[in-house]
Amino acid sequence: MDILNALVAFLNFVFIPAAAYGAQLALGALGVTLIYGILRFSNFAHGDTMAFGTAITILVTWGLQALGISLGPLPTALLALPVGIAATALLVLATDRAVYRFYRVQKAAPIILVMASVGVMFLMNGLTRLLIGVDEQRFADGERFVINVRDFKAMTGLAEGLALKTTQLLTLVIAILVVWALFWFLNRTKSGKAMRAYSDNEDLALLSGIDPEKVVRLTWIIAAALATIAGVLYGLDKAFKPFNYFQILLPIFAAAIVGGLGNPLGAIAGGFVVAFSEVAITYPWLKIAGYLFPGWQPDGLLQLLGTEYKFAVSFVILIVVLLFKPTGLFRGKSV
Amino acid sequence: EDIKLGISLGFTGPLESMAPAMAKGAEMAMQEVNDSGLLMDGTTVVAVQGDSTCADAAAATATVERLITAEGVKGIVGGMCSGETIASLENVAKANGIVMISPSATSPALTTIEDNGLFFRTSPSDARQGEVMADIVLEKGINSVAVTYTNNDYGKGLADSFQAAFEEKGGNVTVNSAHDDGKADYSAEVAALAAAGGDALVVAGYVDQGGSGVVRAALDTGAFETFVFPDGMVGNAVVENFGDEIEGSFGQNPAAEGEGRETYLKMAEEAGFDGSGAFSAEAYDAAALILLAMAAADSSDPAVYKDKVMDVANEPGEKIMPGQLAKALEIINGGGDVDYVGAAAVELVEPGETAGTFREVSFEGGEMKVIGYR
Amino acid sequence: MIKVEDLHRHFGGFRAVDGASLTIETGSITGLIGPNGAGKSTLFNVIAGVLPPTSGRVIMDGQDITGLPPHQLFHKGLLRTFQLAHEFASMTVRENLMMVPGQQTGETIWNTWFQRGRIEREEAELRRKADEVLDFLTISHLTHEKAGNLSGGQKKLLELGRTMMVDAKIVFLDEVGAGVNRTLLGTIADAILRLNRERGYTFCVIEHDMDFIGKLCDPVIVMAEGKVLAKGSAADIMQNEEVIEAYLGTGLKNKDMVGA
Amino acid sequence: MSTNRQATAHSPWRAPILFAALALLFVLEGTVRNSMFSGSWNTSLAILNMGLISAITALGVNMQWGYAGLFNVGVVGFLALGGLAPVLVAMPPVEGGWSAGGPRVLLSLAVGLGTLALATQLWRRMGKGRLRGLAVTGVLILGFFVYRGLFDPAVTAIEANNPARHGNLGGLGMPVMLSWVVGGAFAAAAAWAVGKVALGLRSDYLAIATLGIGEIIVAVLKNEDWLARGVKNVVSIPRPVPYEIDLQQNPAFVEFATRWGFSATEASGIWVKICYMSLFLVVLLVLILLAELALKSPWGRMMRAIRDNETAAEAMGKNVTARHLQVFVLGSAVIGMAGAMMITQDGLMAPVGYNPLRYTFLIWVMVIVGGSGNNWGSVLGAVLIWFLWIKAEVWGPALIGVLTAPLPDGGLKEHLLDSSAHMRFIAMGLVLLLVLRFAPRGLVPEK
Amino acid sequence: MSDQDQAFGNRGNRDASVVNPHGRGTIDGTRRSGSTGPGRAGDPFLIGEAMSGGYGRGPDILHDCTIAVEKGQIAVIVGPNGAGKSTAMKAIFGMLNLRQGSVRLNGRDITALNPQDRVKAGMGFVPQVHNIFPSMTVEENLEMGAFIRNDDIRQTLEQVYDLFPAVAEKRRQAAGELSGGQRQQVAVGRALMTRPQVLMLDEPTAGVSPIVMDELFDRIIAIARGGLPVLMVEQNAQQAMMIADKAYVLVQGANAHTGTGKELMANDEVRRTFLGG
Ligand SMILES: Nc1ncnc2c1ncn2[C@@H]1O[C@H](COP(=O)(O)OP(=O)(O)OP(=O)(O)O)[C@@H](O)[C@H]1O
Ligand SMILES: Nc1ncnc2c1ncn2[C@@H]1O[C@H](COP(=O)(O)OP(=O)(O)OP(=O)(O)O)[C@@H](O)[C@H]1O
Ligand SMILES: [Mg+2]
Ligand SMILES: [Mg+2]
């Protein structure tokens, strides 16, 4: 029995990738959930907002790289991030002004806002492509690994290697920081409470002297920041390609719903549930079983289901979880 | 007289990043012909683009319908993905008797489809490449591989034919599983591949799609160090993406001896685009074939020139490389025979698809090196 | 008619209903009063099948109905109104009434295609009945108004009207009086009395307006902190020291400042 | 409450005028040839036919959303499931496919379903406690292994049967129109299963369940080769209408065409499309008739009541969960039917094509733009949006051509012209936003 | 439960996954304030004079309706359901577009101000429905009442808790979980937190038990006598009339009777038709 190797294999192929992916989903879901919670609609344009923010950040990163500015072991993109956030914030504020505000004033049925966000999604989709094209772009630099497989093996002498990428670590750390900050902001600061109050009862918020437009602006700015951060981290870890940012919308929504829409903690939990169930259920346990029970030679891969069903699996798990825990992982704002 | 040629590719949708370089390739062939002024006494060719979306059969059909019935194109370079190609072929092209030459639809279904002699393709059949790839892998002394394929007819067909050939020749495929393009994350796929093990990973995907994603994740987790790349993966992008990380990996893509593809790459560079993108060369060939067939038939009527496509593509005749379209037209106008080889080694076999010669490449020192042809 | 046996309903650690036992006699108009948060609405919701009880039983006519869903209770003749009116806002007042009766032929989708004639006849009958009810409630001028446009009191009347579309056995009324003009409340009280006398409905009424309770109810049950505190005639209850202390109070303390 | 505000009476002419305008668009597309329109009846009718199929899909979604407020984000799955029907019903049987493992596959599926049924029964019947959990888990695990034990070899055998051309079970060789009903039944069955689990619980379960079922169905179609060849696609699905080639070779038809001043090729295309159009129109009109009959009767009143206020409807004796299940199943059946019709028209089953953007979101856009809750609105929205979606391919780049005309030649202009394909998205987005802006409750709002 | 049903009362989209069902407002929060003008000589502290107007583009609800309250006094509005009492309150608070008439506060004409700015100008309002933040705790609800204040609010908070001990017990609980009467208490508490210059209450005692109602009236009297004018709508007309310095009977959006509470109680016809006595 070789527990160490089994553990390392598990960490390397299941735990670390799933955790990083989960954090990426969580950051995306956080933005979706925030808009949902405060502006009361599901924003389908979020994926493309992420893409736009990332595209701007990439352009700035290239500029910085050309100037020879770098952050040492960390990716230069982190330096460009504030610019990306600012540009994205401007864009979403402009969108709000041009599109959503009208329906807010009209008090149109919320589904109209959802559909308007689909329209905005199409627009941003095209805009990003006009801006940076449809190709894959890479902009990661700095140290790629905190620890890589070869070094790890040399260091420990184990048969299995362990890799931890800078971007993975960065994603996890930032995700935790951002969630903490958002939580603190919403529950402890006056502006945060104003946002929650607005979300609960718009008229009464107004009657308490809260300026609704300010709340809306703040929400969009935070959402833009979340989207850009999520998009850039995802792009750093994988690669940037506008089309993928649309595709990631689906797991993001799944994560947000599972965690309980409108609940920041839920978004985090949802992200990890989706990520871990995708990786763990479809993981062939053959190798790990081989370490744990050296004598056993099964002929299959000990894989519960093929990876082609990974997304389906995560949905089934979600539904089962919800069936047995009907309030959701965290109580979301729903009927 | 102006002749219109349709280019129906997925400019939006899952393979949107491949489409522009393909369209550029096709247009380059037309430009070359126009510049020569030799096609049917100086007839010029105009390209009309249509967006087939790759994924949506209905939209593709509508696009091709427009190209044919409204724009009046005399032939079509396209479609891009097999499903969409079949739909537009069956419902529109056949009904209107228009020739379609697809640069990238590789489904075996297209081999057997009732096409009235209207459909051709310049990409090699999956079966042939699978065989070639199996040979190459075995010759490298690798007996056990894992296979991942992009979950469409191209990937699936290639992976299956490779597995069949490889196992027949004594190799062992530890796992043969799909990855979907455009997904957010490939950790699960790579974890499964790694668990199954193998000395190398065969990636039957697209370089600017999930294929790269899988390779990335496999490298990062140290799951595989050697990769085998078929045509969808061989391009400059793979070098740009992975540099010397894929040291020792190898692959193959269709190209004939005689530097057809090298020439093409150079021409593309001069025209300002990346000719090494997947199926860009094949698109150039598709357009060239249509035009040469027209010249040979001395007619732009598809019902007439469709019978000439095989003639100009195959022996006997003078071998035609990329950039030599003017020469080919001269020969044809002079009553001679040509054998179009082009950038992707076009050699059409019944019922109108390329048999394909492949060049073998390997990745060393962060560069792609051509090792040989087979 | 209704017997509640040692009913508990807890929210987390909080015992909203904490071992309440009571009976509602057939043919009575039973009042249910108690301080805010005493658990009256919660008790209602448990009886009406909206909330599942933590423990305890509800028995109707000797039959255990604990935890049955509301729509089944409806068919057993148990109806309820809501503390905040639950009208079907986008439907007309008449439609609000016509949708009430169960087992309509036209509510089966199959029949809407193949039983047009029968549906027509049933509809005519329903329309007649609805108009009758509207007359009874003196709101027939609102027949074609959208229910969402009614004022608060009119909505309450409509709620009451719905219970008259079918032969209810027992009707639970949750604060019909809150926010209703006192003159109109008189009309409602009359309507309730008539239903009770003429149609033999049993009522259970939650209300904070003691005039209303006094005029209508016998007996009156007082709840406090999830338990039954007292039961008796309205007059007795209003003299009960405990009830006065917990619920009724002794009137304005600052009377001297009034009109100063 | 102010959402009623814009419900102010609409002219009764509104719908007819809009439909006339839409018809005019198609006539223009068929007759006028300029940079906006193609001037080809073939194109025009092709767009119309797909628009009609979209209309039927939208009708199904509208039943679920407009009548009952059920949010189905798995439209793509039900469409795809419906699309399976033509393959299984109309394709000729595959030689050797059935004998290779057909019965075993069916048996294993029965075992799988039986296991689930047994597990649910156990869960219901047994008292709470650890024993119940153990028993149910045991049954599930055992069932899973028996199922896989039967299923895997059967599938391997079937897929090994001439994989390049077949490798699947094949169909029954029955008339393809029959598959439209079967497609509806498939989707209905799936909807019933989903609804049983997710309806009546917290409402966002339905969203996630439908999102999931959509993904699952498409994944199954992609990966279960024995069923419909997976990503290798099934082609040449029989048609219910004549083939153009046959018409072109039919002298009577050629003569007929020339009499009308069309070339045989053109006329054959038009004729085939008119045939399809008639079939689709009949289905659409029958569905609308049934839907309107139901909607304008006590059933419809009950549905509106439930949508208005579930709590009150429940208290008024309406079984909300059962009604929701009913409309959900009916709506899904209609969607499934549309899916089968679409595959019939395409003549091709290509599961890779089922992506949610096109088959879920776009359908939703159609329903909302048309006016949710209104059947005619859905039809109008569907045909219009589909028309625009197709025309955006041309209009988008045209737009950018106009916009960039004043720019000086150079890198920027070239870049923009090069990326003009993406104007398709921008144009679509603009159209959507404009419609929503000027008719937020839809073009033909619910009365 | 009820708050959500209300907000979504009229459409099928009750599905929480698409849209958050919490209260969408009815007020246009984007409206900008106009400028204020001078008041008129001899004005009461707050007066809505000759107001006419309705909701959106609908018909007029108010017809030449006048409501006023003096410093240190209590003014009560009564009338049948649907008479326009709440509408009049909203009109005074700027939540309605007035077609005619003006609103003046403390010697200034504030007709053009938007509701937010009226809050800042010192007006406090408890609406009839939707008057709490359901998912925020009781304490947070009260804090939101003090949103525009920058001073220490702890003392006021304690005062409110003293006034409503039942609510004090539940200060960490979400307000949406409270019983009907408890919510009402939170709502009034919220308005008191504002420390307004004038307090407007729409049926503050609906659904509260008699003992709490008495407490509440006591408190209102105390507040008024402390100099803070109170304008309220009441259906518990008899008690309300006892404490009213000025009472208005509204019928169909117009002033039908005006007088002191005692005068109106003495008027038989008024008592029978409107006060239910
Ligand atoms: N969902 C819930 N979660 C937690 N506590 C709750 C919930 N619903 C009610 N409660 C608590 O249960 C108690 C009883 O509430 P209930 O609504 O039954 O009171 P009530 O007697 O109807 O009062 P009122 O006369 O004010 O309407 C209250 O203290 C309330 O705070
Ligand atoms: N948001 C609104 N839009 C349109 N009409 C409204 C709106 N709110 C109220 N109304 C109408 O205005 C009239 C007056 O309503 P209001 O709420 O002012 O009555 P009220 O006197 O407060 O009645 P109650 O005692 O029942 O609260 C009613 O006819 C009502 O239907
Ligand atoms: Mg209550
Ligand atoms: Mg009112």
Automatic annotation (TrEMBL), chain A:
GO cellular component: plasma membrane
Coiled-coil blocks: none
Location(s) in or outside the cell: Cell membrane
Membrane topology, from the record: Multi-pass membrane protein
GO term, biological process aspect, one: D-alanine transmembrane transport
CDD domains: TM_PBP1_LivH_like
Alphabetized Gene3D superfamilies for the sequence: ABC transporter involved in vitamin B12 uptake, BtuC
Superkingdom to which the source organism belongs: Bacteria
GO molecular function annotation: L-isoleucine transmembrane transporter activity; L-leucine transmembrane transporter activity; L-phenylalanine transmembrane transporter activity; L-valine transmembrane transporter activity
Protein name, per record: Amino acid/amide ABC transporter membrane protein 1, HAAT family
Species, as recorded: Paracoccus homiensis
TrEMBL record, chain C:
Highest taxon in the source lineage: Bacteria
CDD domains cross-referenced by the UniProt entry: ABC_Mj1267_LivG_branched
ABC transporter domain residues: 2-250
SUPFAM superfamilies given in the database record: P-loop containing nucleoside triphosphate hydrolases
Keyword Nucleotide-binding: yes
Matching Pfam families: ABC_tran, BCA_ABC_TP_C
Keyword terms of this UniProt record: ATP-binding, Nucleotide-binding, Transport
GO MF annotations in UniProt: ATP binding; ATP hydrolysis activity
GO CC annotation: plasma membrane
PANTHER family per the UniProt record, alphabetical: CONSERVED COMPONENT OF ABC TRANSPORTER FOR NATURAL AMINO ACIDS (PTHR45772:SF9), CONSERVED COMPONENT OF ABC TRANSPORTER FOR NATURAL AMINO ACIDS-RELATED (PTHR45772)
Protein name per the record: Amino acid/amide ABC transporter ATP-binding protein 1, HAAT family
Native source organism of the sequence: Paracoccus homiensis
TrEMBL record, chain D:
Location within or outside the cell: Cell membrane
Transmembrane segments: 43-61, 68-89, 101-119, 131-151, 171-193, 205-221, 270-295, 325-343, 363-389, 421-439
Presence of the UniProt keyword Cell membrane in the record: yes
UniProt keyword list: Cell membrane, Membrane, Transmembrane, Transmembrane helix
Membrane disposition: Multi-pass membrane protein
Superkingdom as given in the UniProt entry: Bacteria
Major location (coarse): membrane
Pfam families given in the database record: BPD_transp_2
One function term, GO molecular function aspect: branched-chain amino acid transmembrane transporter activity
Single GO cellular component term: plasma membrane
KW Membrane (keyword) present: yes
Name of this protein: Amino acid/amide ABC transporter membrane protein 2, HAAT family
Organism: Paracoccus homiensis
From TrEMBL, chain E:
Gene3D superfamilies referenced in this protein's UniProt entry, alphabetically: P-loop containing nucleotide triphosphate hydrolases (3.40.50.300)
Organism whose genome encodes this protein: Paracoccus homiensis
GO molecular function, one term: ATP binding
Keyword Transport recorded: yes
Domain of life: Bacteria
Any GO BP annotation: L-amino acid transport
Family to which this protein belongs: Belongs to the ABC transporter superfamily.
Official protein name in the record: Amino acid/amide ABC transporter ATP-binding protein 2, HAAT family
InterPro entries cross-referenced by the UniProt entry: AAA+_ATPase, ABC_transporter-like_ATP-bd, BCAA_Transport_ATP-bd_LivF, P-loop_NTPase
Sequence ranges assigned to domain ABC transporter in this UniProt record: 46-277
Region (Disordered): 1-45
Keyword entries, A-Z: Amino-acid transport, ATP-binding, Nucleotide-binding, Transport
A UniProt-annotated Pfam family: ABC_tran
